[in-house]
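Me: I keep going back and forth on a fold encoding question. No explanation is needed for now; the record alone will do.

Assistant:
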Amino acid sequence: MIRFLRLVQNENMKIWRRLSTPVMCGILAAACILMAFVMKAYQPAEAPADPWKQSLLLENEQLAESLSKGQLPPAMAEETRKKMEINEYRLQKNLPPHEPLMWKFTRETGTLLIPLVTLFTVITGATAVAGEFSMGTIKFLLIRPPGRSQILLAKYLSILLFALGLLLLLFVLLPLVGGVMFGFESWGPPRLIHDGQQIIERSVPAHLLILFAGSTAELLMMVTFAFMISTVFRSSSAAIGLSVFLMFAGHQAVNILSLRGADWIRWILFANTDLLPYFGEGSPPAEGMTLAFSLTVLVVHFLLFTGISWWVFARRDVA
């Protein structure tokens, strides 16, 4: 066990000693600061009086009119109904739809930058095994006492630890930069979530935690996929290119097929990587999808990717 932990530590040291790692951290920090300046530039100098009750009443009238026409797709119509019920709940409970700028910046920027963390982790994972083959250092790893399975597992765990490190850096930077730019504020009013049956008042910390945690399922799956491609084909460029292409094109394809009512898309990986609809953020791409179903699809794909990686790496002739 101690030997395996040292192996994981060694793989982590390889990652953090690369020149690309501090560059990635710097890009992540620069992106946070840039987004803060952009958001600051588009904020009005003085906040005018906001008749939010009249705004919500007007918005509900417009939403009801669009529903009455019967031209919305089922998923969009359901979201419209949820929006109307949330607005009515705000009016009844006297809960203004105001969000402190500091936490609005944290939420919106975090949602935008998590894919950047995924991209950086995919790049790192794609070079984990393929880089050893291209530099010829794989032979020095295999002559050591740990077996191939332990070597592969250590590399995979080191990549996940790297992803965790980037996420922690992001979660520390966001409220810090947001507080410096917009002022450190309290949590503000609760976030209202419609789970399909009732409206839930969720505190800002709980909402941010669920929002970020639900977005990491795609990170795990894309990193595992890139790791598999890197192991099978021993090509970091192929792993990076294919993973990035699928990451951006997969969701677009699912959205298009969802609007056309294709029920079979529930079996596609990218229809299940976003778990937020099961926590009140949007709707699943296909009717009848549940959290248990999506987790099952993710587990099956995860076992498939890791199983292929282990099978190929354990049987490959390095000589």
About this structure: Residues 39 and 258 are 32 Å apart (CA to CA). Residues 101-135 form the longest helix (35 residues).
